[in-house]
Amino acid sequence: MECQRCHNRPATVHLTQLMNGEKTEVHVCEKCAKEKGYMHDHEESFTLNDLLTGLFNYEPKQSFNGQQMDAQQQKEQLKCPTCGLTFQEFARAGKFGCAKCYETFDERLNPILRRVHSENTRHDGKIPRREGGNLHLRRQMDQYKSELVRLIEQEEFEEAAKIRDEIRSLDDQLQQREEGES
Amino acid sequence: MSLQQFMNEAISPWMKQDGPDSDIVLSSRIRLARNFSSIPFPTISSEDNLEKVLNFFNGEFRNESFRDYKNFEIVKMNDLQPIEKRVLVEKHLISPHLTNNSVHSASLISQNEQVSIMINEEDHIRIQLYFPGFQLDRALEQASQLDDWLEEKIDYAFDEKRGYLTACPTNVGTGMRASVMMHLPALAMTQQINRMTPAINQLGLVVRGIYGEGSEAVGSIFQISNQITLGKSEEDIVEDLHSVVKQLIDQERRARQALMHRSGIQLEDRIFRSYGVLKYGRIIESKEAAKCLSDLRLGIDLGFIDHVPKTILNELMVLTQPGFLQQYAKETLSPSERDIRRASLIRERLQLENKE
Ligand SMILES: [Zn+2]
Ligand SMILES: [Zn+2]
């Protein structure tokens, strides 16, 4: 994608602006981002985190006293053991290096995901057959359990008994599978 | 080569089919982003790793068929001339991003060009599936089956909490981008679309004007797609999109009727002027072509013009882009040469209809 402003360089800064309740997407190069004030000049580069911070006031601007510096340093040292990407590098490019990065940066991801996905941080969609492991069964179990509560509240005990049996057999399946894995 | 022949090769077979609500919805698309669990994402992968991914597809899926999608052919970016890449982008078979990382990137394209599986784009795998008209549910169903078919042989990067793991945090979760391409000339003319956009955004959906810079829509073509990929199931996302599109279709039809009723003669005049430009113009810039083609298409839908096929907008939107113009001319063209070629190609195309 080319820069929307100069049409010269590739767009490396992608942001969503909220103005008068309307969202606009902006795709610009680093130079234009600086000129338009999307980026702070004193920093070497702009980070996704800063971007979110700046646009949505998620974190108060940090002042450079001792305590916060420690937190800052810790954040910088966070590094993915599999691909070697640091959190800072992730935040700068806005892209992960590998699947393991999600685990490595887990604690810092929720604020970012919340901003991007309207407050959502957890997957609620498709589960792959093989990689999904026992998730299918566990989701089914959760469904049965809430169904059971509903049925008992409505005093539909016959139906409730059926569901209870389903839960038992699911539980057996789960236990068998988990034993098989270990 | 005659234009007829060129067109037959240039327009994907699925584009020539009619779909539901195709007076307003041009196409429905589902895209799924997937990655191998044990290989770093293409964003930072070494060439060796990228090659591993490509070789896997080359070995496992080349010439495989899945349901109606026969013989996936593998098109490697490194084997293509710049203009050929451009043509594939203009046909929406590959993304511009894929052409940028040419090393070990490719696309598996089904014979009818309805499905393409991009390899080593931003993610290892991007499954993309098009349907003519408004058929999101069907597109999702088939994309999901295609996904299952790949998953039989691939260990996907998946996490219980975050779902399908992708290179960019904007795709994580379902990894799905569902989008619908709509022709909304009456809503655009009456500025109503701008007023509806904020409400649509509130539902986690985005409205984009395509072929335009920023949000300006040239040719009144808009793409509506989901922005959120976490916290909602694929079916829920598609359902939300479905209901918004349904409403836009109703509003557009209502706005067309109102325009006909209130300013029928002005509308008719606008449509025939645009038709005149397309039929007799000698220099047509891409923006003007898009506007006039949109008017012509509206004229066909409203019954003012009855001897030109409805697919003309789809067709010429693709054919009059720089890559296709140059491929047809078999030479590199400057922008002003392109405007002349564009005009003559459109004239030629419309003449083809008059002969029948
Ligand atoms: Zn720029
Ligand atoms: Zn990593």
From TrEMBL, chain A:
Q: Which residues cross the membrane?
A: none
Looking up InterPro entries in the UniProt record yields:
UVR_dom, UVR_dom_sf, YacH
Taken from the record, one Pfam family name reads UVR
PROSITE patterns hit by this protein: UVR (PS50151)
Keyword set for this entry? Coiled coil
The source's superkingdom equals Bacteria
Which stretches are annotated as coiled coil? 134-180
Q: Which residues form the UVR domain?
A: 138-173
Protein's recorded name:
UvrB/UvrC motif-containing protein
Species of origin reads: Halobacillus amylolyticus
TrEMBL record, chain B:
Signal peptide, first to last residue: none
- State which residue ranges cross the membrane: none
- Relay the activity regulation note: Appears to be allosterically activated by the binding of pArg-containing polypeptides to the pArg-binding pocket localized in the C-terminal domain of McsB.
Q: What class of enzyme is it?
A: transferase
Entry-linked Gene3D superfamilies: Glutamine synthetase/guanido kinase, catalytic domain (3.30.590.10)
Q: Catalyses which reaction?
A: L-arginyl-[protein] + ATP = N(omega)-phospho-L-arginyl-[protein] + ADP + H(+)
- Enumerate the InterPro entries for this protein: Arg_Kinase, ATP-guanido_PTrfase, ATP-guanido_PTrfase_AS, ATP-guanido_PTrfase_cat, Gln_synth/guanido_kin_cat_dom
Keywords for this protein:
Allosteric enzyme, ATP-binding, Kinase, Nucleotide-binding, Transferase
Family as reported in the entry's similarity comment: Belongs to the ATP:guanido phosphotransferase family.
What does this protein do, in the record's words? Catalyzes the specific phosphorylation of arginine residues in a large number of proteins. Is part of the bacterial stress response system. Protein arginine phosphorylation has a physiologically important role and is involved in the regulation of many critical cellular processes, such as protein homeostasis, motility, competence, and stringent and stress responses, by regulating gene expression and protein activity.
Question: What name does the UniProt record give this protein?
Answer: Protein-arginine kinase
Which organism encodes this protein?
Answer: Halobacillus amylolyticus
